[in-house]
Automatic annotation (TrEMBL), chain A:
This is Urea ABC transporter ATP-binding protein UrtD. Keywords: ATP-binding, Nucleotide-binding, Transport. It comes from Pseudomonas aestuarii. Residues 43-283 form the ABC transporter domain. Signal peptide: none annotated.
TrEMBL record, chain B:
Keywords: Signal. Residues 1-28 form the signal peptide. It comes from Pseudomonas aestuarii. NCBIfam families: urea_ABC_UrtA. InterPro entries: ABC_urea-bd_UrtA (IPR017777), Leu_Ile_Val-bd (IPR000709), Peripla_BP_I (IPR028082). Residues 403-422 are annotated as: Disordered. Residues 410-422 have a biased composition (Basic and acidic residues). The gene is urtA. Gene3D superfamilies: 3.40.50.2300. This is Urea ABC transporter substrate-binding protein.
TrEMBL record, chain C:
SUPFAM superfamilies: ARM repeat. This is Urea ABC transporter permease subunit UrtB. It is a multi-pass membrane protein. It is found in: Cell inner membrane. Coiled coil: none annotated. The keyword Cell membrane applies. Pfam families: BPD_transp_2 (PF02653). Its main location: membrane. InterPro entries: ABC_transp_permease, ABC_UrtB_bac, ARM-like, ARM-type_fold, BCAA_transport_permease. It comes from the Bacteria. Belongs to the binding-protein-dependent transport system permease family. LivHM subfamily. Gene3D superfamilies: Leucine-rich Repeat Variant (1.25.10.10). It comes from Pseudomonas aestuarii.
UniProtKB/TrEMBL annotation, chain D:
It is found in: Cell inner membrane. Keywords: Cell membrane, Membrane, Transmembrane, Transmembrane helix. InterPro entries: ABC_transp_permease (IPR001851), ABC_transptr_urea_perm_UrtC (IPR017778), LivM-like (IPR043428). The chain crosses the membrane at residues 20-39, 46-67, 73-92, 127-150, 157-175, 205-223, 256-274, 294-317, 329-346. NCBIfam families: urea_trans_UrtC (TIGR03408). The keyword RNA-binding does not apply. This is Urea ABC transporter permease subunit UrtC. It is a multi-pass membrane protein.
Length: 283, 422, 523, 359
């Protein structure tokens, strides 16, 4: 079920900001928050190095993700995939190297909260939701509104916000258990809830860490459709081991190995690459 | 059906809450209620438990002799647990709920200060058995312990005398609370009046429960290099053990630097290995080792009582100054009630003036006509190996107490009779 | 000097009272306190060997007198008449001495001991006279210095002499004396030299300048003594904090159990020592000096057993819930305190120091290092080494470290986590019991002994870094020394408050403590 | 720890019942001071002893509520709330001792030989400034400590040990006489408040009503917060702080807000405690008091607002009863209570009632 990924999509800028209608929504939401994406790349990582007491988790890694692109990152365990996400979200500070969101926002000097507010959403490897709050309340919290203390004291759910939540509840098929505490959901449902929370947060760049781990085939397929529908409006970076899933969604695949990029290109190209086979896919 | 269990249990819970507040005491007509307000738990239990037992013994003794005005004395014992607000609460409960006619209690100055407003508000009667800093004269309190001029000042006079070692420099060491502060203020003024310069006086305070006296002892040694030095210690009971141990271990004997202490009595010595302390001094108005018939009977009675009630550590039961003061206080109160013919506080207060009692200290102590204090003799005792004191000096007769010390400015205007503090 | 000869000499002097110098003892007994003082002063100026036994009896409080003022010397319970043959009419009463008389007796004894053959005795006497020599003894000292054979004793004697020569008429003698005092570094010398600086007291300029340089020397020596003293007391306090906190470093550092009843383990260790002391007093009074050594294993196993019992009953259910463990163990500490208060009474219990733990060694003129503190520092260090060995070199240690790092995985590998938890907690409590034995030697032993150490122990472990023994060791000694440096400057209370403040700020900066756990912390 | 039980208890047991019980308890509490005004011989007369005792317990209830806001909702177990309670008490104590001393110096300053007031005592003779101090002292301390603590992200038990060290340092500081707060004796012997005699029945009743009003006010505030989005964010801070950060919330601001609010509530409770009990001294700051407060909340039920009130009432009621009936066994009972609650009543009495309510 390989997708008809268009390899050269990456080479010329995916679209110019003024661009055709298809990408207008993505561009407009990005532009509305003053995110300068003139050159078309939403995320730029150059020569990123992270070491934990001598162990090189990332060694001068370079990665560029275009606006509206769906990038998959694959690689063996310990290749530095989660550390990469930690660096982007500010959880871990790189020893050196450059990390920019859009053209102006330097991720290495922003706190996790500023990065999240700037428009980077993250889904954790282990689904973490607010267990004590109901599903509806989880989404309400994640919604894109002013998140200061004073705002939350006076907050009233507007009709439009309520509709947006209902719409997302429908897409992740959880509208049935709106009032149930999130703690009582099944593993798969929690994964969907977390994805739902990402949607209401409406970020430009979604970082998804093994989103389909532990899901049934039907759920995996549904998630693939969901991501593809998102691809145009948001840029996605998916870390995944499930080759079938990667095949079904990826425009572009990057293979990480021991902290640096081993190979990049379409899935077919990558699967054919000798080094990748030897290191990761096996004979 | 669901709601009723919830309703029942919440009502039950609030009932328990409210029932805890109205302790109902059956009013027995023919006894006189006597309140005993001493901490039986917390940091002060160490000193106050023996006072409670002494009070109970004295009450039994009086009851055995027919009680007072033909009625038996009924002790009401409560435990304020070394918690000062609880002292005030228990005092109010003794006076308003249990309606006691007299209370024997308190040890630290702060516990007395916290119950004083309650006794003055409800016109109760309190007997305070412990030596204290003075500066207080309430009509509702009788002070059977020593005022500063009945303990601190004679002790310093002894240190200045030839026999006491003719000290030239004085190191005032105390725990940081109101009794040491006031006593040292009085002593500093007294030393100035005797011509001791400020450079020869050093005042050092340590926090409660201080246990590391290395630096303090080093300071004392440095200070004593400047001339014959004596240490006047108002260190609180508990911290004395580490202080004396450190003093002995650093090779300081009583002959080089004598130490006189005001809150180390026989009770505290029970908890200390007295070998290194031999020769150290303490100033009190009574010592167990004082030899006179009244005292030997008193000590024998106490040891028998301790064994009979098998109090913890009964075989090593000792008597000390506050216990003697409690014993004298209760007997004097009983005599005053007999004289006044009623337990009404105002009548008893007037009857107390001039009361006399042959005390175990070997003197007949008289209650002053106006200032609610006892006339008491002062004795300096030296620690012996067996944990007892040997009296090396004592005043000829009892001294009149000066609650308003002349060495604090502004005290001369204070009246020498009791007046309400607010 | 063969000691046999000396013993003969002693025997001889014992018999002397029978031949009896005229009524020394009886004049002393009959005299009033002030007259007794004069008598003693005259004796110390003109020592007479015959008087030695009388002085010894006086010093040990063995002189007594009956109603007829006849002197008796008590020799292990029997009253021998000191002079003449008087049978004691009724039990003679011990003579009452006060501090002043005891001081004078000491000086008299010293001057008498100068005559003794034993150089060691003479040296001790000379040192005593350095402190207390009276001007009247100038002649005696002069004579003794001339006839003294032993070099060490002679220098000590010349020093004692120098103290008295400061007021000599001849400036040359005064100059020599001042120079001699300069090297001693004795605090008493400092005050004597200071008085010499004032021209009114000392007219000769040369002596004054010599006094100036001498004073500078003495001050420098005293400063070194003071600094060493501070460092030592810092180390001593540090070792006490370490002993208190080490057990906690295991239960809290490794097991992650917040044990607020840790202070009570110290207290139980101290009470175990008290019980062992009682047993020794009753059954083996002669070996009383060994009771602390026996108390160590006893305290260790008693507290370890109680620790294990607590772990099995309460703490086992609360792993992974730190806040609840904190409250539950606080409840345990309240119960333990009240239990001990009911069993042993609210008063402190008396734990006496054996002879080898009392007194101190004179290192510098103004610095005495108490034996018990030296022993405790040594004891703390070897407990640390033992614990380190146990944790890193034994099977139990391996299991404990495995369980603490990843309880689930350890269980999968067949490690009996339940038993390991129990043993580890027992080990932590046992070490606290050992700490209790040490604490019983330096402070008082009461029901709430533990309360004053619980907060300090937690701060030491948190500051040192959880899971790191080395961290706790550094933190304990660091805190001890910091406390002792601040105390002289700003007093004990402000010192403690300042240190608490610094710790709170430090933990903000480095929540993982001095020695952080290596590796990535995935939370 | 699952969701705020206060709301579920109300929903489960039916709103009418909880309101009914609440109204009943409130009515009894309002009646107490009024009955106190009756002449002494009247059978319904409530003695001053009972009024001050219940008043004291109400102050402790406010402390329990404040602690529950930070512990039950934000997951911050503070073992130092006694310090904020005592700071509020001291601010009121300064005013009361200035009132008692008239224009002279407060009594304890005489033996320190101070001739004039230290700078921090200025203005404490007027009531309004004293009220500001009651709020400012604990509030500012909480703000500074909280700012540093939450910025450095110290977690769970470390935070508790730091707060314990803070209150211990505060106690040592106030024990010193040079600090100028009466050292070990603290302040006592109060006579007047706002011109009224402090021992008069009217004043006692007014103080009681004020305490009750503060309790009901803070309960209402607590419910409002729990129901608002702020309350939900707080619960999220307790359960999954990382997740919350990646949703764009800065947990430091939320923690700091609830921390300072809780400290101020404790300060106000302390200020109302002192005139009723008549004494304030450093032992209020001892770590034991703060840990005892934690057990009230744990017994009552964390995360419910009514639970801690019940917990505070029960434990203090038992304390008053035990220290009279069985003085030696009180500490056993309290210790057993600590262990029992943590082992068998993780959700506290309210949790018990809720479970019973469900059957």
């Amino acid at each position: 079920m390989s997708s008809t990924a268009n390899p050269e999509l990456m080479l010329e800028p995916a679209f110019d900001p003024a661009g055709s209608g298809r990408d207008a929504i993505g561009a407009s939401t990005a532009a509305s928050q003053g995110l300068n994406i003139r050159h078309g790349t939403i995320l730029t990582l150059e020569d990123i190095n992270v070491s934990f007491d001598g162990f090189k988790a990332l060694s001068n890694l370079c990665l560029y993700i275009g606006v509206g692109e769906l990038r998959c990152i694959i690689g063996p365990n310990g290749a530095g995939k989660t550390t990469l996400m930690d660096v982007i979200t500010g959880k871990t500070r790189p020893d050196n190297g450059v990390a920019y969101f859009g053209e102006t926002l330097d991720l290495t000097r922003m706190s996790e909260v500023e990065i999240a507010q700037a428009g980077i959403g993250r889904k954790f490897q282990k689904p973490t939701v607010f267990e004590a709050l109901s599903v509806f309340e989880n989404l309400e919290l994640a919604q894109k509104t002013s998140k200061t203390v004073w705002a939350s004291l006076r907050a009233r759910l507007s009709g439009e916000q309520r509709d947006r939540i209902d719409e997302v509840l429908a897409t992740i098929k959880l509208d049935g258990s709106r009032q149930r505490p999130a703690g009582l959901l099944s593993h798969g449902q929690k994964q969907f809830l977390e994805i739902g929370m990402l949607l209401v947060q409406d970020p430009q760049l979604l970082l998804l860490d093994e989103p389909v781990a532990g899901m049934t085939d039907a759920e995996t397929e549904f998630t693939a459709e969901l991501f593809k529908s998102l691809a145009r409006k948001h840029s996605l970076m998916v870390v995944e081991h499930d080759m079938g899933f990667v095949g079904s969604i990826a425009d572009h695949v990057t293979v990480l190995h021991q902290g640096s990029v081993l190979a990049a290109g379409s899935l077919a190209q990558v699967q054919a690459d000798e080094r990748v086979i030897e290191v990761y896919l096996g004979r | 059906m669901k709601r009723r269990p919830l309703l029942k249990s919440t009502l039950a819970a609030s009932a328990l809450l409210l029932s805890g507040l109205f302790p109902f005491t059956v009013q027995a007509a023919e006894t006189i209620k006597v309140g005993i307000l001493h901490s039986l738990s917390g940091t002060m239990a160490i000193s106050e438990t023996s006072l409670k037992d002494m009070a109970l013994m004295t009450i039994d003794e009086i009851n055995a002799k027919g009680g007072v005005l033909g009625k038996q004395l009924e002790p009401v014992v409560v435990d304020p647990a070394s918690n000062w607000p609880l002292f005030a609460e228990r005092a109010r409960q003794l006076l308003s709920q249990d309606k006691v006619d007299v209370t024997f209690g308190c040890w630290t100055s702060v516990s007395r200060k916290s119950v004083l407003p309650v006794y003055e508000e409800l016109n109760g009667l309190l007997f305070y058995p412990v030596q204290y800093e003075g500066e207080e004269l309430s009509p509702n309190v009788f002070y059977t312990g020593a005022a500063p001029n009945q303990q601190a000042i004679p002790a310093v006079e002894y240190l200045m005398s030839e026999d006491g070692g003719a000290a030239k420099r004085y190191f005032l060491l105390g725990t940081d609370y109101v009794y040491p502060r006031t006593t040292n203020k009085i002593l500093r003024a007294f030393l100035h009046s005797k011509g001791v310069a400020d450079k020869d006086i050093q005042e050092v305070y340590t926090p409660f429960g201080h246990s590391d006296y290395q630096t303090i002892v080093a300071n004392i040694k440095k200070f004593s290099a400047g001339g014959k030095t004596a240490v006047i210690s108002t260190v609180n009971g508990d911290s004395n053990v580490p202080f004396y141990k450190e003093l002995a271990n650093q090779g300081i004997e009583a002959t080089d630097i004598p130490v006189v202490a005001f809150s180390v009595g026989e009770e505290e010595l029970r908890g200390i290995d007295t070998k290194p302390l031999v020769g150290q001094l303490a100033a009190w108005n009574y010592f167990q080792s004082v030899e006179n018939p009244v005292n030997s009977a008193f000590v024998a009675k106490w040891k028998a009582y301790a064994k009979a009630k098998n109090l913890p550590g009964a075989d090593k039961a000792v008597t000390n100054d506050p216990m003697e003061a409690t014993y004298v206080g209760i007997n004097m109160w009983a005599q005053a009630v007999e004289k006044a013919g009623s337990t009404d506080v105002d009548k008893v207060r007037d009857a107390m003036a001039g009361q006399t009692f042959a005390a175990p200290s070997g003197y007949t102590l008289t209650m002053d006509a106006t200032n609610h204090h006892l006339h008491k003799p002062v004795m300096i005792g030296e620690v012996q190996e067996d944990g007892q004191f040997e009296v090396v000096w004592q005043t000829e007769g009892p001294l009149r107490a000066q609650p308003w010390s002349p060495y604090i400015e502004g005290n001369d205007k204070k009246p020498d009779y009791a007046v309400k503090s607010n | 000097m063969p000691t046999a000869l000396y013993r003969l000499f002693l025997l001889l002097t014992l018999l002397l009272p029978l031949t009896g110098h005229a009524g020394d003892a009886s004049d002393f007994v009959a005299a009033s306190p002030s007259k007794q003082a004069k008598l003693l002063e005259s004796w110390s100026a003109a020592p007479d060997a015959a008087r030695l036994p009388l002085l010894e009896a006086l010093q040990q409080g063995r002189l007594a007198a009956d109603s007829g003022k006849n002197p008796f010397i008590e020799v292990n319970g029997l009253y021998q008449s000191a002079e003449g043959e008087f049978a004691p009419a009724e039990a003679p009463r011990k003579l009452r001495l006060n501090n002043r008389l005891r001081g004078l007796i000491g000086t008299a004894m010293a001057s008498h001991q100068l005559l003794a053959e034993e150089p060691a005795l003479r040296l001790a006497a000379a040192r005593e006279l350095q402190k207390r020599a009276k001007p009247a003894q100038l002649g005696l000292l002069d004579a003794r210095v001339a006839s003294e054979t032993d070099a060490q004793v002679r220098t000590a004697l010349t020093l004692a002499l120098a103290n008295l020569q400061l007021v000599d008429r001849d400036p040359a003698i005064r100059l020599a004396a001042v120079r001699l005092l300069g090297e001693t570094g004795d605090p008493l010398a400092r005050t004597r030299l200071e008085t010499l600086l004032d021209p009114a007291v000392e007219d000769d300029a040369g002596v004054r300048t010599a006094a100036q340089t001498g004073l500078a020397q003495v001050k420098r020596k005293l400063l070194i003594g003071e600094l060493l003293g501070q460092a030592f007391s810092g180390l001593s306090l540090g070792s006490i904090l370490l002993l208190a906190a080490l057990g906690l470093a295991i239960t809290f550092g490794l097991l992650g159990v917040i044990n607020m009843a840790h202070g009570e383990m110290l207290m139980l260790g101290a009470y175990a020592t008290y019980m062992v002391q009682l047993l020794f007093q009753r059954f083996a009074p002669e070996a009383i000096a060994l009771y602390p050594l026996v108390a160590l294993p006893v305290a260790f196993f008693v507290t370890a057993a109680i620790g294990m019992a607590l772990e099995r009953t309460v703490i086992r259910h609360l792993y992974g819930r730190p806040l609840e463990t904190l409250l539950a163990t606080w409840g345990i500490s309240l119960i333990l305190i009240q239990l001990v208060r009911l069993l042993f009474g609210a008063q402190n219990v008396e734990v006496a120091n054996p002879y080898w733990l009392s007194g101190g060694v004179q290192v510098l003129p103004n610095l005495v290092l108490p034996y018990n503190r030296i022993v405790i520092i040594g004891f703390a260090l070897c407990v640390v080494v033992l614990t380190w060995l146990l944790l890193n070199k034994t099977r139990l240690g391996l299991n404990v470290r495995a369980v603490t790092q990843n309880r689930a995985m350890a269980a999968c590998c067949g490690v009996p986590t339940g038993r390991v938890d129990m043993l580890a907690f027992g080990l932590g409590s046992g070490i606290a019991g050992l700490g209790g034995v040490a604490l019983s030697q330096i402070g008082n032993v009461g029901p709430d002994l533990g309360q004053s150490y619980i907060i300090d122990s937690f701060l030491v472990v948190v500051l040192g870094g959880v899971g790191q023994l080395a961290g706790s060791v550094m933190a304990a000694f660091g805190l001890g020394i910091a406390n002792k440096i601040l105390e002289p400057q700003i007093g004990a209370v402000l010192g403690k408050i300042l240190i608490l403040g610094l710790i709170i700020l430090f933990i903000q900066k480095r929540p993982q403590g001095l020695f952080a756990l290596k590796g990535r912390v995935i939370d | 720890m699952n969701q705020p039980l206060a709301i579920t208890v109300a929903q489960k047991a039916g709103p009418k019942v909880t309101l009914g019980v609440g109204a009943l308890v409130l009515a009894v509490l309002i009646a107490l001071p009024l009955l106190h005004l009756l002449p002494a011989d009247n059978v319904l007369h409530v003695s001053a002893y009972t009024l001050t005792l219940v008043g004291k317990i109400l102050c402790y209830c406010i402390v329990a509520l404040a602690l529950d806001l930070v512990w039950g909702y934000a997951g911050l177990l503070s073992l130092g709330h006694g310090l904020f309670f005592a700071l509020g008490g001291y601010a009121m104590g300064m005013y009361l001792s200035r009132e008692a001393a008239g224009d002279g110096l407060p009594a304890f300053m005489s033996f320190l030989a101070w001739t004039e007031l230290p700078w921090y005592w200025y203005g404490t003779s007027n009531f309004l400034w004293a009220l500001c101090l009651v709020v400012l002292a604990p509030g500012l301390l909480a703000l500074v400590f909280g700012f540093f603590a939450f910025r450095s992200r110290i977690k769970g038990v470390y935070f508790s040990i730091m707060t314990q060290a803070l209150t211990f340092a505060g106690m040592l500081l106030f024990f010193r006489n040079e600090t100028g707060f009466g050292g070990n004796n603290g302040f006592t012997g109060f006579t007047r408040i706002l011109g009224f005699d402090i021992t008069a029945q009217g004043t006692r009743a007014a103080l009681f009503i004020a305490t009750l009003a503060l309790l009901v006010g803070s309960l209402y505030l607590g419910f409002k917060l729990a129901r608002s989005k702020f309350g939900r964010v707080l619960t999220a801070v307790r359960d999954a702080e990382n997740r919350l950060m990646f949703c764009g919330y800065d947990p430091r601001g939320y923690k700091l807000f609830i921390w300072v609010l809780s400290a101020v509530l404790c300060g106000l409770a302390g200020a109302l405690y002192v005139p009723q009990v008549g004494i304030i001294n450093p032992s209020e700051m001892s770590p034991t008091n703060s840990i005892e407060a934690a057990v009230w909340v744990a017994l009552g039920g964390r995360g419910t607002l009514i639970g801690p009130l019940l917990g505070a009432g029960l434990v203090n009621g038992m304390k008053s009863w035990f220290t009279v009936a069985f003085p030696e066994y009180w500490l056993f009972a309290l210790g057993a209570l600590f262990i029992g609650v943590t082992l068998y009543l993780p959700k506290g009495v309210i949790g018990l009632l809720r479970k019973r309510g469900e059957q």
